[in-house]
Amino acid sequence: MFIPGLITFLVLVLTPPRGQGSVATYPKVAKAANHERILIVAPHIDDESIGAGGYATDAIANGAEVYVVFLTAGDCNRFSARILHRTLDPTASNYLAVGETRIREAKAAMKLLGVPEDRFFILGYPDRGLKSILDNRENVILSRSTRRTAVPYEDAMTPGATYSFGSLMADMEQVLTAVKPTTVIAPAPFDLHPDHAAAAEITDLALDDLELQPRRLGYLIHVSKIPKSYVWLPRRALAPPPRMRTLTWAIYPLTKPVQQKKDAVLLTYKSQRPYVFLLRNAYVRSNELFYTYETAPADVQQPKASAARLRVSR
Predict the structure, then answer these.
(1) What does CATH list as the number for 19-301?
(2) Among 230, 229, 236, 231, which Cα is nearest to 17's?
(3) Where are the domains of the chain?
(4) Distance (Å, rounded) from C-alpha 110 to C-alpha 158?
(5) Which of 154, 173, 276, 313 is the most exposed place for a label (fewest CB within 10 A)?
(6) Distance between CA atoms of 249 and 220, rounded to whole angstroms?
(7) pLDDT beyond 90 at 227
């Protein structure tokens, strides 16, 4: 006799994919061409794979240049610090060790994804401190976890750079100047995580300062209405939360091999287990979802008929 939990599991697995109808009306983002330069902005190490790992996989396969900039080392994760160091009360040095671990994982993930070492940048600014940097532009910020006031990582682009608005913007603009991206993929500006919303603003400010106008796409991770599933159902579509479906969205379909590659890259981040499994279940789906900015790019394929969409003011 089946136990209720097993019945629920079988229903979830055997039920046809849901959400297809809800994303069918959205335009599709075309695959990157071989002349394009893609820059993915990640507030934390692993956000690049969660938000755009599938798109990046195809872009690299097509010959495009893919770059990643990690704004922080993700060194304020209390759960990781507790697990890695077997303590309920992590110290500043424990958090620094978490940052070093995540940097090593980022290198392994980028190698698996196919991003060369000279195409990813680790800035090392304070995890959960990006909003504070934006809100206190004349001050140097103290990291709440590592208790440092400057970038402590030798693998960072500018070791010793102060945790300040000026240093962060200088590093970000240096990346943009080097990459000269045709497409920038960063968090959506309405993501609920302060670091993600701040990363969107930092990206926009740097682009404006340099008078660059690449195509802009935004990925959404931290929204309460997007569930973190306990069961991986990769055939199901990733759709916007119901209250956001009138915003401007586009989808990028993922083939099964690309899903498998995205999954493998995500699971490289072993220090984030078991949380990374919940993220895998929620975001390794039949498509990736991108918020599109006010000017629609030429290579976003519009459907024959689509519902009118509201736009978020920037």
Answers:
(1) 3.40.50.10320
(2) 236
(3) 19-301
(4) 20
(5) 313
(6) 11
(7) no
Can you point out the beta strands (E) in 162-214? 183-187
CA distance 177 to 186: 17
Q: Which two tokens stand for residue 292?
A: 């599109």
Supply 150's token pair.
Answer: 């400057």
Report CA-CA distances (Å) from 128 to 3, 45, 146, 165, 221: 43, 13, 11, 14, 15
Q: How far apart are CA 48 and CA 110, in angstroms?
A: 10
pLDDT classification of 83: cutoffs 50, 70, 90: confident
Question: Of 25-34, 99-108, 145-154, 295-304, where does mean pLDDT reach its minimum?
Answer: 295-304
Q: Taking all residues of the chain, what is their mean pLDDT, rounded to a whole number?
A: 87
Closest C-alpha among 123, 128, 195, 130 to residue 160 = 123
**What is the identity of the amino acid at 6?**
L
Q: Are 98 and 84 in contact (CB under 8 A)?
A: yes
Give the total residue count for the chain.
Answer: 314
Question: Residue 245 is encoded by which pair of tokens?
Answer: 């479906």
pLDDT at 18 over 50: no
The 10s digit of each residue's pLDDT in 123-180 is 999 999 999 999 999 999 999 999 999 999 999 999 999 999 999 999 999 999 999 9
**What is the residue-wise DSSP string for 48-74?**
HHHHHHHHHHHHHHTT-EEEEEEEE--
H or E element that contains 39: strand 37-42
pTM above 0.70, yes or no: yes
